[in-house]
Amino acid sequence: MKKLEEYIVRYAWPIFIVTIAITIIFGIQFRNIRFEDDFTKYVPESDPQVSFYNSLEDKFSSFQKKSMIIALEFDDLFTPESLNTLEQIVNAVEKVSEVRTVSALTNMPKIIPTEEGFNVKEVVEILPQTIEEAQDLKSDLQDDELIWGKMVTEDGKATIVSISFFSTVDEYKAIDAVQKVVDPLKGNAQKVTYFGLPVITREMGNDARQTMVRLTPIAALIILLILYWGFRTFQGVILPIFVALFSSIWILGFSVVLNRPMTMISAVIPIMMVALVSAYGVHFMNRYYDFRHQLNGNEVIKSTLNWVLVPIFLSAITTLGGFFSLMTAQFKPVADFGLYAGLGVFFGFLLATFSLAAFLTIFRPKKAPTHFSKVDVRNSNSLINKILNFIYKSVTHRKKAVVIGTIIAIVILGLGIPRINIETTVKASMGPNHPITILLEYFKNRFGGSDYNYVYLETEDVKNPFILREMVRISKYSEQFYAFKDSSSIADFIMNLNEAVEGPGYKAIPDSIDKIGNLWLYAQGNSYIEGRINKDENASIVECRAEESTSQILNEEVQHMIQFLESRPHTVRVVPIDEPGAQEYLAETIVNDLEIFLNQSFLTREEVKNTVMSIVKKPDSEFIQLDTETAEKTAKGASLEIEDLGLTVSDVAQTLQSWFTDNQSVSLDQALVRDFEFDEGTAEYLADILSYSIEQVGKREKMNFLKSEVEQIVGNPLSDEYQFIFYQVLDSQVYIPDEEGDITVSYRLTGSPIINDTINSRLFTEQQRSMIVAFAVIFLLVWLQLKNFKRSVFAYIPLALTVYTSFGIMGLFKIPLNVATLMVASIAIGAGIDYTIHFIYRWNRELEIDPKNALFNTVTSTGRGMILNSLAVSCGTYVMALGPISMMRSFGALMATILLLAVVYTLFLLPLLLSICDRKLFLCEENNHHSPVKKEKSPLKKNKGAKRK
């Protein structure tokens, strides 16, 4: 140690020059600091949930990962001018090189009726030219579930444009490129809003940078005022601050060298360093001024180093251990915070010892403040000395009061611990008035939200009727949850197509692969459909808009969805309806679907199933009434073919009615020859058409009868969305669960809110791991210092109370556990142990020199440094409460409070605990606390005495 002291004094100038040079080099790197707060990168890419989420970006162009949203507000969207503005914006954005796909109202698929049947076109192909046409389009789109309420707001005034970027592009540059082409084309749009994950992360990065730049000087100024109050000297005020600021500069420069971006959390490290690392300078200056009253020349520096180098080193090592324990966390922001903060503490140690000693050797202060003398401490009226005397008297003569107060605090804080909750939603993290939260609320109110969760399906062929029907069931079940609202999939479009082909009332999924294949032809080439299936057509997604709620609700809803998906059949085989057990299973399926759509279970489930079963078993022909109404419906169903033959629907309906009345005494084609003088071929053609139409009437009546029976059971009329269920009563084949079946499907949930849920599920685990590591590492370091297990355990009690207090305060004041606050316990362990180390180290040294006054000397000298350190650290950390981000405000306030209480626990409880080990010494000091203070021996005399001994 002596050689090191002499080395620092001898090479003061080189040390000083190297310090300044390193600071300048790292300071130049400031301009290259990057901020990145993509929460999908909070956990390692190897994480199964994250890697799966990232993999979907290449499979589906509609996947909302590397994407953004533009919201356009108009007085009325459905005017030629507004729709033209929208079209121009979409066309311009599609030409941006970074853009992969654009989804908007104009390129959504729309089924257009024609004289021959229908066509599928994009909305842009039928954009209106007059206000009347625009209002007709609006009326038409209001019935389209894929568009209305999703792409267009319910009031018809606003719409969104969803943009996805190529995976290799710089998202921030892509956002700027899109804004550059959109802003000049706003036209008559009243409001244009940009949003999406890249927009959020960029805003968070800007906030982080502003927090660092704006709050670090404020923290430094506050600490300057506190240090001036404690030291009353220029060097005592400035030097500890410069140690902390230099340490911060080194950290930021080092992050650039490592090419690791900063996050919202690590951006507060300069503030933390100003608060924490300045403590090393405070302790150095505190002891330096003690020796200035006794020694001269370089002996002051050497003696100061002799007394503070070891405790500052041990303090730095233990604090570094607390921070480095955070690197065991699997959350990137937490691990990065631990790395940078740990390095900052190490840099602070070097600066507060080597560099600060070198500086004071070169620029030695002319004098030291007089209030650092021991006589002044006993008699001074200064506030800090009064506090020190009060602490000393409390631990020597008011022990019971200290113990009782501690017990009361433990009981009160214990009430808060069970109330700790996890909350990582954007609103909770950013705060209700943050611009990001305001944007979220806007999208929630206008479009139902801006985040998406997905149900991923993988199978042999996504066009299989069973798969498409499962998509519909998933969509309907998910509607009850905040995190899975307003779902859409390719199944919705297929149902719309089926209704266009078969007529109103048939908005459902056919049971035949052939029928699905015919419908699929109309979907070819549409960007909406192609964006939701992969190129091999063996995977698809159900897209669900996620409305932000709370972390607890999100977790519960995700678990409900997982349970539902697990309960669905995963392997099925196709059997004809007349195979034994098929009709029973179909009836069970219809009842299950009713419960999914109604979101309730039937009290008389078996009775409902029997009712459905009785209808399933009846042939379609039993529901055909050979009357005038049936004749009219039949003729209307074949109207296109009838009109092609030059007939009217009413004429054919009259023929059918007569045929029914005559009890079909002749064949239908003969009746047509009789009434219309057709040739035999034409008559057979029309007869086949009409026979098919009669069958369709029977099917419709069977569906309607099932609907009426169910409505009687439910007690309410059922809307058109239930057509999906009733349509199944017409199935000619059934998909029955069978492990050896040839149709398999697997399900998986993903989405940005679900990644958040993954983070939530790990928070407590991460908290426990980092805290256990911190406790273990730091306890070993304390044990090595004290070389006494019993003393080490007692020394750890104030620290344990500090951690206990952090949890209690979180519960009592409803501070949620998130990626920031989970670090508090580990930081409290690492930073709080500093006070214990400085106190015990000084206590041990005083025992060797002046045992009768060891406690007084320790409390009044080292205690002053501890109090100044605590006030500086806490007040500097409280500055974070001025930041724009709610999560960091809570973290700063909690961290500051805990560090402030840590010194209280140490100064009041540690002497009592140590008294158990050194009872005789404390009794001696209690009897001697009014005696004059003996003159402290110089380090030289002490060493000689130690040799004689």
Automatic annotation (TrEMBL):
| Pfam families, per the entry | MMPL (PF03176)
Where are its TM segments located?
12-30, 212-231, 238-258, 264-284, 305-327, 339-363, 401-420, 770-786, 793-813, 819-841, 862-885, 891-914
**Which UniProt keyword terms apply here?**
Cell membrane, Membrane, Transmembrane, Transmembrane helix
Q: Where in the cell is it found?
A: Cell membrane
Query: Keyword Isomerase: yes or no?
Result: no
How is this protein annotated for GO cellular component?
plasma membrane
This protein's membrane topology, according to the annotation, is: Multi-pass membrane protein
Q: Which domain of life is it from?
A: Bacteria
Q: Where is the SSD domain?
A: 238-362, 792-916
Q: Which PANTHER family match?
A: MEMBRANE PROTEIN MJ1562-RELATED, MEMBRANE PROTEIN YDFJ
Q: What is this protein called?
A: Multidrug resistance protein MdtC
Organism expressing this protein natively: Atribacter laminatus
Organism classification, top ranks?
Answer: Bacteria, Pseudomonadati, Atribacterota, Atribacteria, Atribacterales
